Amino acid sequence: MVLVKSRVRLLGTKADYSTDRALADSGARMSLVDRLLAERIGVQYTGREISFVSISGHSVKAMEAVVSELEVEGEALRYEAIAVSEIPGIVKETLKKNGLDENMVVGVLTLERANMIPDTTTGKLEKVESFIL
After folding, report:
1. Which CATH number does 24-116 carry?
2. Domain boundaries, the chain
3. pTM exceeds 0.85, yes or no
């Protein structure tokens, strides 16, 4: 299986951040941003605490926040909800070792909102039609 890299730009209240190596993770519900990056760009916290299991199998606490804009592969998503947490060192090392950005992971809710799916045969995101039942 090929890891899917995505081009992402975060626009916060204080700064922006861009990468072309963010992991698009179909196993992650929400997009995750490291706490130090979130502080640097400026996010609005909602007050909601989130628990999740990291790629290393550890239980992690995160705070829900909203970033002014999250752009994935050119698709701009205004007021995107993200999870903010200290990404564990072992996870950062694994991401970095695989040529991925260690400060964020793009989750399914963001991908669905952008009408994109990860293609593990090409390592890229594909734009798809959305549908409503």
Report:
1. 2.40.70.10
2. 24-116
3. yes
